[in-house]
Protein backbone atom coordinates (compact mmCIF):
# COMPACT_ATOMS: atom_id res chain seq x y z
CA UNK A 1 0.00 0.00 0.00
CA UNK A 2 1.34 3.48 -0.86
CA UNK A 3 2.29 5.87 1.95
CA UNK A 4 -0.60 8.20 1.05
CA UNK A 5 -3.14 5.37 1.10
CA UNK A 6 -1.78 4.14 4.43
CA UNK A 7 -1.97 7.61 5.93
CA UNK A 8 -5.53 7.95 4.64
CA UNK A 9 -6.63 4.71 6.33
CA UNK A 10 -5.01 5.83 9.58
CA UNK A 11 -7.08 9.04 9.46
CA UNK A 12 -10.25 7.48 8.09
CA UNK A 13 -10.76 4.77 10.73
CA UNK A 14 -11.09 7.12 13.76
CA UNK A 15 -12.93 9.70 11.64
CA UNK A 16 -15.52 7.09 10.64
CA UNK A 17 -16.04 6.26 14.33
CA UNK A 18 -16.52 9.98 15.12
CA UNK A 19 -18.97 10.29 12.23
CA UNK A 20 -21.06 7.35 13.45
CA UNK A 21 -21.05 8.66 17.03
CA UNK A 22 -22.14 12.13 15.88
CA UNK A 23 -24.95 10.65 13.85
CA UNK A 24 -26.11 8.18 16.47
CA UNK A 25 -25.79 10.21 19.66
CA UNK A 26 -26.32 13.77 18.44
CA UNK A 27 -28.49 13.15 15.39
CA UNK A 28 -31.46 15.10 16.73
CA UNK A 29 -29.49 18.29 17.52
CA UNK A 30 -30.89 21.24 15.54
CA UNK A 31 -28.27 23.10 13.53
CA UNK A 32 -30.16 25.69 11.50
CA UNK A 33 -33.36 27.21 10.35
CA UNK A 34 -35.05 26.35 7.05
CA UNK A 35 -37.25 29.05 5.56
CA UNK A 36 -39.36 29.21 2.43
CA UNK A 37 -36.74 31.53 0.93
CA UNK A 38 -33.87 29.19 1.68
CA UNK A 39 -35.61 26.40 -0.20
CA UNK A 40 -37.09 28.37 -3.10
CA UNK A 41 -33.96 30.48 -3.62
CA UNK A 42 -31.54 27.67 -4.41
CA UNK A 43 -31.17 26.17 -0.90
CA UNK A 44 -28.58 28.86 -0.13
CA UNK A 45 -27.42 29.01 3.45
CA UNK A 46 -29.05 25.75 4.58
CA UNK A 47 -26.42 23.75 6.53
CA UNK A 48 -27.03 20.64 4.45
CA UNK A 49 -23.67 19.07 3.65
CA UNK A 50 -20.54 17.75 5.33
CA UNK A 51 -17.34 18.78 3.53
CA UNK A 52 -13.91 18.13 5.01
CA UNK A 53 -11.69 19.48 2.26
CA UNK A 54 -12.48 23.22 2.34
CA UNK A 55 -14.74 25.89 3.81
CA UNK A 56 -15.96 29.09 2.16
CA UNK A 57 -16.43 32.19 4.27
CA UNK A 58 -18.59 34.90 2.71
CA UNK A 59 -16.19 37.68 3.77
CA UNK A 60 -12.84 35.97 3.65
CA UNK A 61 -13.19 33.50 0.79
CA UNK A 62 -11.99 29.94 0.59
CA UNK A 63 -9.84 28.10 3.12
CA UNK A 64 -8.52 24.65 2.25
CA UNK A 65 -8.34 22.62 5.46
CA UNK A 66 -8.04 25.96 7.28
CA UNK A 67 -5.45 27.53 4.96
CA UNK A 68 -6.16 30.62 2.83
CA UNK A 69 -4.71 30.93 -0.69
CA UNK A 70 -1.82 33.23 0.42
CA UNK A 71 -1.06 30.73 3.20
CA UNK A 72 -1.02 27.87 0.68
CA UNK A 73 1.34 29.92 -1.50
CA UNK A 74 3.61 30.23 1.50
CA UNK A 75 3.34 26.77 3.06
CA UNK A 76 2.77 24.19 0.32
CA UNK A 77 5.84 22.65 -1.36
CA UNK A 78 7.07 24.49 -4.46
CA UNK A 79 9.73 23.77 -7.06
CA UNK A 80 11.52 27.02 -6.15
CA UNK A 81 10.86 29.77 -3.59
CA UNK A 82 9.45 32.10 -6.27
CA UNK A 83 7.17 29.46 -7.80
CA UNK A 84 3.51 28.72 -7.13
CA UNK A 85 2.44 25.75 -4.96
CA UNK A 86 2.24 22.30 -6.50
CA UNK A 87 -1.40 21.05 -6.70
CA UNK A 88 -0.07 17.62 -5.73
CA UNK A 89 0.52 19.13 -2.27
CA UNK A 90 -2.96 20.62 -2.12
CA UNK A 91 -4.46 17.21 -2.84
CA UNK A 92 -2.44 15.76 0.06
CA UNK A 93 -3.62 18.57 2.32
CA UNK A 94 -7.28 18.20 1.31
CA UNK A 95 -7.20 14.44 1.70
CA UNK A 96 -5.34 14.20 5.00
CA UNK A 97 -5.70 17.62 6.62
CA UNK A 98 -1.92 17.90 7.10
CA UNK A 99 0.64 19.96 5.22
CA UNK A 100 2.80 17.72 3.02
CA UNK A 101 6.59 17.61 2.92
CA UNK A 102 8.54 17.86 -0.34
CA UNK A 103 8.91 14.06 -0.23
CA UNK A 104 5.14 13.55 0.14
CA UNK A 105 4.50 15.71 -2.90
CA UNK A 106 7.18 13.93 -4.90
CA UNK A 107 5.62 10.58 -4.07
CA UNK A 108 2.14 11.67 -5.21
CA UNK A 109 3.59 13.11 -8.42
CA UNK A 110 5.40 9.84 -9.17
CA UNK A 111 2.28 7.83 -8.44
CA UNK A 112 0.15 9.95 -10.78
CA UNK A 113 2.75 9.55 -13.53
CA UNK A 114 2.54 5.76 -13.21
CA UNK A 115 -1.25 5.84 -13.27
CA UNK A 116 -1.58 8.20 -16.28
CA UNK A 117 -2.59 5.42 -18.67
CA UNK A 118 -5.54 6.07 -20.98
CA UNK A 119 -6.99 3.11 -22.94
CA UNK A 120 -7.32 3.44 -26.70
CA UNK A 121 -11.11 3.31 -26.74
CA UNK A 122 -11.19 6.59 -24.76
CA UNK A 123 -9.29 8.38 -27.54
CA UNK A 124 -11.69 6.73 -30.04
CA UNK A 125 -14.66 8.16 -28.13
CA UNK A 126 -13.12 11.66 -28.25
CA UNK A 127 -12.27 11.28 -31.94
CA UNK A 128 -15.81 10.13 -32.73
CA UNK A 129 -17.22 13.49 -31.62
CA UNK A 130 -17.31 16.21 -34.29
CA UNK A 131 -15.16 19.34 -34.03
CA UNK A 132 -18.23 21.41 -33.21
CA UNK A 133 -18.79 19.35 -30.06
CA UNK A 134 -17.92 21.54 -27.05
CA UNK A 135 -14.62 20.61 -25.36
CA UNK A 136 -16.56 20.06 -22.11
CA UNK A 137 -18.80 17.52 -23.90
CA UNK A 138 -15.70 15.69 -25.19
CA UNK A 139 -14.23 15.83 -21.69
CA UNK A 140 -17.25 14.28 -19.98
CA UNK A 141 -17.65 11.65 -22.72
CA UNK A 142 -14.00 10.69 -22.19
CA UNK A 143 -14.48 10.53 -18.41
CA UNK A 144 -17.41 8.14 -18.83
CA UNK A 145 -15.40 6.06 -21.31
CA UNK A 146 -12.62 5.79 -18.69
CA UNK A 147 -15.11 4.12 -16.33
CA UNK A 148 -14.52 0.79 -18.10
CA UNK A 149 -11.40 0.64 -15.91
CA UNK A 150 -13.22 1.40 -12.66
CA UNK A 151 -11.81 -0.63 -9.79
CA UNK A 152 -14.88 0.24 -7.72
CA UNK A 153 -17.20 -1.22 -10.38
CA UNK A 154 -15.12 -4.41 -10.40
CA UNK A 155 -15.02 -4.68 -6.62
CA UNK A 156 -18.74 -3.98 -6.30
CA UNK A 157 -19.61 -6.59 -8.92
CA UNK A 158 -17.42 -9.08 -7.07
CA UNK A 159 -19.44 -8.47 -3.89
CA UNK A 160 -16.99 -6.39 -1.84
CA UNK A 161 -17.91 -5.69 1.78
CA UNK A 162 -19.29 -2.14 2.14
CA UNK A 163 -16.60 -1.38 4.75
CA UNK A 164 -14.05 -1.66 1.94
CA UNK A 165 -15.74 0.57 -0.65
CA UNK A 166 -13.20 3.28 0.07
CA UNK A 167 -10.31 1.08 -1.10
CA UNK A 168 -11.30 0.67 -4.76
CA UNK A 169 -12.67 4.25 -4.71
CA UNK A 170 -9.18 5.40 -3.74
CA UNK A 171 -7.71 3.56 -6.74
CA UNK A 172 -10.28 5.11 -9.09
CA UNK A 173 -9.76 8.62 -7.74
CA UNK A 174 -5.98 8.42 -8.04
CA UNK A 175 -6.19 6.90 -11.55
CA UNK A 176 -8.68 9.50 -12.70
CA UNK A 177 -6.63 12.45 -11.43
CA UNK A 178 -3.62 11.01 -13.26
CA UNK A 179 -5.58 10.45 -16.48
CA UNK A 180 -7.30 13.85 -16.64
CA UNK A 181 -4.39 15.97 -17.96
CA UNK A 182 -3.83 13.38 -20.70
CA UNK A 183 -7.42 13.51 -21.97
CA UNK A 184 -7.68 17.29 -21.49
CA UNK A 185 -4.55 17.90 -23.58
CA UNK A 186 -5.73 15.38 -26.18
CA UNK A 187 -9.04 17.27 -26.54
CA UNK A 188 -7.19 20.59 -26.79
CA UNK A 189 -4.86 19.36 -29.55
CA UNK A 190 -7.75 17.67 -31.36
CA UNK A 191 -9.79 20.86 -31.45
CA UNK A 192 -7.12 23.46 -32.06
CA UNK A 193 -4.03 21.77 -33.54
CA UNK A 194 -5.52 19.37 -36.12
CA UNK A 195 -5.08 16.49 -33.70
CA UNK A 196 -1.27 16.66 -33.66
CA UNK A 197 -0.63 15.23 -30.21
CA UNK A 198 2.34 15.77 -27.87
CA UNK A 199 3.58 12.96 -25.63
CA UNK A 200 3.81 13.40 -21.86
CA UNK A 201 7.16 14.41 -20.37
CA UNK A 202 7.73 12.23 -17.30
CA UNK A 203 10.25 14.70 -15.89
CA UNK A 204 7.52 17.31 -15.34
CA UNK A 205 5.09 17.84 -12.48
CA UNK A 206 1.32 17.30 -12.99
CA UNK A 207 0.62 20.94 -13.97
CA UNK A 208 3.66 21.56 -16.17
CA UNK A 209 3.04 18.26 -17.94
CA UNK A 210 -0.51 19.33 -18.80
CA UNK A 211 0.84 22.61 -20.22
CA UNK A 212 3.52 20.64 -22.09
CA UNK A 213 1.03 18.19 -23.65
CA UNK A 214 -1.06 21.19 -24.73
CA UNK A 215 2.05 22.63 -26.42
CA UNK A 216 3.34 25.15 -23.86
CA UNK A 217 6.73 24.80 -22.16
CA UNK A 218 7.48 28.33 -21.02
CA UNK A 219 8.48 28.52 -17.34
CA UNK A 220 5.97 31.31 -16.65
CA UNK A 221 3.10 29.28 -18.15
CA UNK A 222 4.13 26.36 -15.95
CA UNK A 223 3.90 28.66 -12.93
CA UNK A 224 0.50 29.89 -14.09
CA UNK A 225 -0.76 26.31 -14.47
CA UNK A 226 0.41 25.44 -10.93
CA UNK A 227 -1.46 28.47 -9.61
CA UNK A 228 -4.54 27.83 -11.76
CA UNK A 229 -4.80 24.15 -10.87
CA UNK A 230 -4.39 25.00 -7.17
CA UNK A 231 -6.93 27.79 -6.81
CA UNK A 232 -9.74 26.10 -8.77
CA UNK A 233 -9.49 22.81 -6.86
CA UNK A 234 -12.28 23.20 -4.30
CA UNK A 235 -14.90 25.66 -3.04
CA UNK A 236 -16.54 23.71 -0.19
CA UNK A 237 -19.33 21.20 -0.81
CA UNK A 238 -22.37 23.15 -1.99
CA UNK A 239 -21.22 24.48 -5.39
CA UNK A 240 -22.79 22.73 -8.36
CA UNK A 241 -19.79 20.62 -9.45
CA UNK A 242 -18.94 19.47 -5.92
CA UNK A 243 -22.53 18.86 -4.92
CA UNK A 244 -23.38 17.00 -8.14
CA UNK A 245 -20.31 14.76 -7.70
CA UNK A 246 -21.24 14.05 -4.09
CA UNK A 247 -24.92 13.45 -4.90
CA UNK A 248 -24.25 11.00 -7.72
CA UNK A 249 -21.57 9.21 -5.69
CA UNK A 250 -24.08 8.84 -2.86
CA UNK A 251 -25.98 6.39 -5.08
CA UNK A 252 -22.76 4.33 -5.10
CA UNK A 253 -22.05 5.34 -8.69
CA UNK A 254 -18.35 4.94 -9.37
CA UNK A 255 -16.02 7.99 -9.19
CA UNK A 256 -15.94 8.36 -13.00
CA UNK A 257 -19.73 8.68 -13.22
CA UNK A 258 -19.88 10.95 -10.17
CA UNK A 259 -17.12 13.30 -11.33
CA UNK A 260 -18.58 13.23 -14.88
CA UNK A 261 -21.88 14.47 -13.43
CA UNK A 262 -20.01 17.22 -11.59
CA UNK A 263 -18.34 18.28 -14.83
CA UNK A 264 -21.69 18.54 -16.61
CA UNK A 265 -22.70 20.99 -13.86
CA UNK A 266 -19.42 22.88 -14.19
CA UNK A 267 -20.24 23.35 -17.89
CA UNK A 268 -23.15 25.69 -17.03
CA UNK A 269 -22.90 29.48 -17.59
CA UNK A 270 -23.62 30.27 -13.92
CA UNK A 271 -20.70 28.02 -12.90
CA UNK A 272 -17.48 27.13 -14.76
CA UNK A 273 -18.62 28.20 -18.22
CA UNK A 274 -18.37 31.78 -16.94
CA UNK A 275 -14.59 31.70 -17.49
CA UNK A 276 -15.11 31.37 -21.25
CA UNK A 277 -18.07 33.74 -21.28
CA UNK A 278 -15.96 36.53 -19.79
CA UNK A 279 -13.63 36.29 -22.78
CA UNK A 280 -16.46 36.16 -25.33
CA UNK A 281 -18.13 39.13 -23.64
CA UNK A 282 -14.94 41.26 -23.54
CA UNK A 283 -14.26 40.35 -27.18
CA UNK A 284 -17.80 41.49 -28.05
CA UNK A 285 -17.04 44.74 -26.22
CA UNK A 286 -13.80 45.23 -28.15
CA UNK A 287 -15.56 44.40 -31.43
CA UNK A 288 -18.47 46.74 -30.79
CA UNK A 289 -16.40 49.67 -29.56
CA UNK A 290 -13.86 49.09 -32.31
CA UNK A 291 -10.67 49.27 -30.24
CA UNK A 292 -8.72 46.92 -27.98
CA UNK A 293 -8.01 49.86 -25.66
CA UNK A 294 -11.50 51.18 -24.80
CA UNK A 295 -11.86 54.10 -22.41
CA UNK A 296 -13.38 53.57 -18.96
CA UNK A 297 -16.51 55.44 -20.12
CA UNK A 298 -16.87 53.10 -23.11
CA UNK A 299 -16.47 50.05 -20.85
CA UNK A 300 -19.02 51.50 -18.45
CA UNK A 301 -21.53 52.05 -21.26
CA UNK A 302 -21.06 48.50 -22.55
CA UNK A 303 -21.71 47.10 -19.04
CA UNK A 304 -24.89 49.17 -18.75
CA UNK A 305 -26.00 47.87 -22.15
CA UNK A 306 -25.42 44.26 -21.06
CA UNK A 307 -27.57 44.77 -17.97
CA UNK A 308 -30.26 46.56 -19.96
CA UNK A 309 -30.41 43.57 -22.31
CA UNK A 310 -31.33 41.37 -19.32
CA UNK A 311 -27.97 39.61 -19.22
CA UNK A 312 -25.55 39.10 -16.35
CA UNK A 313 -22.01 40.46 -16.29
CA UNK A 314 -19.97 37.26 -16.39
CA UNK A 315 -17.30 36.81 -13.73
CA UNK A 316 -19.16 38.99 -11.21
CA UNK A 317 -21.38 37.94 -8.32
CA UNK A 318 -21.44 34.85 -6.16
CA UNK A 319 -23.97 32.78 -4.30
CA UNK A 320 -21.91 32.76 -1.07
CA UNK A 321 -19.07 35.31 -1.32
CA UNK A 322 -19.77 38.91 -0.37
CA UNK A 323 -16.41 40.43 -1.28
CA UNK A 324 -13.73 40.10 -3.96
CA UNK A 325 -12.85 36.44 -4.45
CA UNK A 326 -9.31 35.75 -3.15
CA UNK A 327 -8.86 33.54 -6.23
CA UNK A 328 -9.38 36.71 -8.32
CA UNK A 329 -6.84 38.53 -6.12
CA UNK A 330 -4.25 35.75 -6.52
CA UNK A 331 -4.54 35.95 -10.31
CA UNK A 332 -4.43 39.76 -10.31
CA UNK A 333 -1.24 39.57 -8.29
CA UNK A 334 0.21 37.09 -10.80
CA UNK A 335 -0.72 39.42 -13.67
CA UNK A 336 0.89 42.36 -11.83
CA UNK A 337 4.12 40.37 -11.54
CA UNK A 338 4.33 38.77 -14.97
CA UNK A 339 1.87 40.27 -17.45
CA UNK A 340 2.62 43.97 -17.84
CA UNK A 341 1.40 45.98 -20.84
CA UNK A 342 -1.39 43.62 -21.84
CA UNK A 343 -4.37 45.58 -23.16
CA UNK A 344 -6.83 42.70 -22.54
CA UNK A 345 -5.72 42.39 -18.91
CA UNK A 346 -6.02 46.17 -18.62
CA UNK A 347 -9.72 45.86 -19.55
CA UNK A 348 -10.14 43.16 -16.87
CA UNK A 349 -8.49 45.51 -14.34
CA UNK A 350 -10.69 48.43 -15.47
CA UNK A 351 -13.81 46.25 -15.10
CA UNK A 352 -12.85 45.69 -11.45
CA UNK A 353 -13.20 49.44 -10.93
CA UNK A 354 -16.30 49.89 -13.11
CA UNK A 355 -18.58 46.87 -12.54
CA UNK A 356 -19.07 46.77 -8.71
CA UNK A 357 -20.69 50.24 -8.49
CA UNK A 358 -22.96 49.39 -11.44
CA UNK A 359 -24.08 46.08 -9.92
CA UNK A 360 -24.31 47.67 -6.46
CA UNK A 361 -26.55 50.36 -7.93
CA UNK A 362 -29.07 47.78 -9.16
CA UNK A 363 -30.03 47.15 -5.55
CA UNK A 364 -30.66 43.44 -6.03
CA UNK A 365 -27.22 41.90 -6.65
CA UNK A 366 -26.05 40.43 -3.35
CA UNK A 367 -22.39 40.39 -4.33
CA UNK A 368 -21.17 43.01 -6.83
CA UNK A 369 -17.55 41.80 -6.62
CA UNK A 370 -15.58 39.64 -9.08
CA UNK A 371 -15.19 35.87 -8.77
CA UNK A 372 -12.42 33.55 -9.99
CA UNK A 373 -13.72 33.49 -13.57
CA UNK A 374 -13.35 37.24 -14.10
CA UNK A 375 -9.56 36.91 -14.34
CA UNK A 376 -8.56 33.38 -15.32
CA UNK A 377 -9.16 33.55 -19.08
CA UNK A 378 -7.22 36.78 -19.52
CA UNK A 379 -4.08 35.17 -18.05
CA UNK A 380 -4.38 32.19 -20.40
CA UNK A 381 -4.91 34.60 -23.31
CA UNK A 382 -1.74 36.45 -22.32
CA UNK A 383 0.28 33.28 -22.86
CA UNK A 384 -1.34 32.48 -26.21
CA UNK A 385 -3.94 29.99 -24.95
CA UNK A 386 -6.70 31.89 -26.70
CA UNK A 387 -9.22 29.07 -27.17
CA UNK A 388 -11.80 30.12 -24.59
CA UNK A 389 -14.21 27.16 -25.09
CA UNK A 390 -11.46 24.99 -23.61
CA UNK A 391 -11.07 27.00 -20.39
CA UNK A 392 -13.79 25.16 -18.48
CA UNK A 393 -11.94 21.89 -19.11
CA UNK A 394 -8.90 23.33 -17.31
CA UNK A 395 -11.16 24.38 -14.43
CA UNK A 396 -12.53 20.81 -14.40
CA UNK A 397 -9.09 19.19 -14.22
CA UNK A 398 -8.34 21.24 -11.12
CA UNK A 399 -11.79 20.69 -9.55
CA UNK A 400 -11.13 16.92 -9.64
CA UNK A 401 -8.68 17.33 -6.75
CA UNK A 402 -11.30 18.61 -4.32
CA UNK A 403 -14.36 16.66 -5.38
CA UNK A 404 -12.55 13.33 -5.62
CA UNK A 405 -10.86 13.81 -2.24
CA UNK A 406 -14.36 14.52 -0.93
CA UNK A 407 -16.06 11.42 -2.32
CA UNK A 408 -13.20 9.35 -0.98
CA UNK A 409 -14.13 10.68 2.44
CA UNK A 410 -17.82 10.01 1.72
CA UNK A 411 -16.92 6.35 1.20
CA UNK A 412 -14.57 6.14 4.16
CA UNK A 413 -17.19 7.62 6.49
CA UNK A 414 -19.88 5.34 5.11
CA UNK A 415 -22.14 8.21 4.08
CA UNK A 416 -25.67 7.31 3.09
CA UNK A 417 -27.56 8.03 -0.10
CA UNK A 418 -28.59 11.69 -0.33
CA UNK A 419 -32.34 12.06 -0.52
CA UNK A 420 -33.90 15.36 0.64
CA UNK A 421 -37.69 15.71 0.67
CA UNK A 422 -39.67 17.72 -1.84
CA UNK A 423 -43.10 19.31 -1.45
CA UNK A 424 -45.83 20.68 -3.69
CA UNK A 425 -46.58 24.35 -4.29
CA UNK A 426 -49.76 23.92 -2.25
CA UNK A 427 -47.70 22.72 0.71
CA UNK A 428 -45.47 25.79 0.60
CA UNK A 429 -48.50 28.08 0.31
CA UNK A 430 -50.14 26.34 3.23
CA UNK A 431 -46.96 26.80 5.29
CA UNK A 432 -46.97 30.49 4.31
CA UNK A 433 -50.55 30.76 5.52
CA UNK A 434 -51.81 31.73 2.06
C1 LIG B 1 -22.87 33.62 -9.51
C2 LIG B 1 -24.36 33.89 -9.59
C3 LIG B 1 -25.03 32.77 -10.39
C4 LIG B 1 -24.94 33.90 -8.17
O1 LIG B 1 -26.35 33.91 -8.28
P1 LIG B 1 -27.27 34.36 -7.08
O2 LIG B 1 -26.76 33.80 -5.80
O3 LIG B 1 -28.67 34.06 -7.47
O4 LIG B 1 -27.02 35.94 -7.08
P2 LIG B 1 -27.89 37.07 -6.41
O5 LIG B 1 -28.71 36.55 -5.28
O6 LIG B 1 -26.98 38.19 -6.13
O7 LIG B 1 -28.91 37.46 -7.60
C5 LIG B 1 -29.90 38.45 -7.40
C6 LIG B 1 -30.16 39.16 -8.71
O8 LIG B 1 -28.97 39.81 -9.15
C7 LIG B 1 -28.64 39.39 -10.47
N1 LIG B 1 -27.19 39.27 -10.65
C8 LIG B 1 -26.34 38.51 -9.90
N2 LIG B 1 -25.10 38.58 -10.44
C9 LIG B 1 -25.19 39.42 -11.50
C10 LIG B 1 -24.24 39.83 -12.47
N3 LIG B 1 -22.99 39.41 -12.47
N4 LIG B 1 -24.68 40.67 -13.44
C11 LIG B 1 -25.95 41.09 -13.47
N5 LIG B 1 -26.92 40.70 -12.60
C12 LIG B 1 -26.51 39.86 -11.63
C13 LIG B 1 -29.29 38.00 -10.57
O9 LIG B 1 -29.41 37.61 -11.94
C14 LIG B 1 -30.58 38.20 -9.83
O10 LIG B 1 -31.44 38.92 -10.70
P3 LIG B 1 -33.03 38.60 -10.75
O11 LIG B 1 -33.52 38.78 -9.34
O12 LIG B 1 -33.55 39.61 -11.72
O13 LIG B 1 -33.14 37.19 -11.24
C15 LIG B 1 -24.66 35.27 -10.26
O14 LIG B 1 -23.99 36.26 -9.52
C16 LIG B 1 -24.24 35.32 -11.70
O15 LIG B 1 -25.04 34.97 -12.58
N6 LIG B 1 -22.98 35.77 -12.00
C17 LIG B 1 -22.48 35.77 -13.36
C18 LIG B 1 -22.01 34.40 -13.78
C19 LIG B 1 -20.74 33.99 -13.07
O16 LIG B 1 -19.80 34.74 -12.97
N7 LIG B 1 -20.69 32.75 -12.61
C20 LIG B 1 -19.53 32.19 -11.95
C21 LIG B 1 -19.75 32.07 -10.49
S1 LIG B 1 -18.30 31.54 -9.64
Fold blueprint:
Layout: H1 3-26, H2 36-40, E1 54-57, E2 61-64, H3 69-75, H4 87-96, H5 102-115, H6 120-128, H7 135-146, H8 151-157, H9 165-192, H10 206-214, H11 219-231, H12 240-250, H13 255-266, H14 274-289, H15 296-308, H16 326-338, H17 343-362, H18 373-382, H19 391-413, H20 425-432
Antiparallel strand pairs: 1-2
The protein binds coenzyme A.
Give the tags:
binds coenzyme A; 434 residues; 20 helices; single chain; Cytochrome p450-Terp, domain 2; mainly alpha; two-stranded antiparallel sheet
Helix count from the secondary structure assignment: 20
The second-level CATH architecture of the domain at 274-382 is Orthogonal Bundle
Bound molecules: coenzyme A
| CATH evolutionary superfamily of the domain at 274-382 | Cytochrome P450-Terp, domain 2
Largest sheet: 2 strands, antiparallel
Low-confidence stretches: none
Strand content: under 5%
Question: Helices and strands: which structural class?
Answer: mainly alpha
What is the number of E strands?
A: 2
Strand order of the largest sheet: 1-2
Global Rg: 22 Å
The outline comes out as globular
Helix residue percentage: 55-70%
Mean pLDDT: 97
Which fold name is given in CATH as the topology of the domain at 274-382? Cytochrome p450-Terp, domain 2
Order of secondary-structure elements:
HHEEHHHHHHHHHHHHHHHHHH
Amino acid sequence: MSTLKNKFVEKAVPAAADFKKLLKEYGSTEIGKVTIESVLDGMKGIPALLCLTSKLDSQEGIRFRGYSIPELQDKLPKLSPTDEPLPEGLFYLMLLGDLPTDADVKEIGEEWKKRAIVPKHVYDVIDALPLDSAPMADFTAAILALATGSEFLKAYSAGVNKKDYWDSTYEDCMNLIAQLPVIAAYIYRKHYFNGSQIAADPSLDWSANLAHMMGYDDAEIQKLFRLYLTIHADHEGGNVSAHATHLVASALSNPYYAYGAGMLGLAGPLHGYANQEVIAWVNDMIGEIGTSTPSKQQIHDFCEKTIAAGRVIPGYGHAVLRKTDPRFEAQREFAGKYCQNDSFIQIINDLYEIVPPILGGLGKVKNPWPNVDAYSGSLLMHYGITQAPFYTVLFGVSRALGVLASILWDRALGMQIERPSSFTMEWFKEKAGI
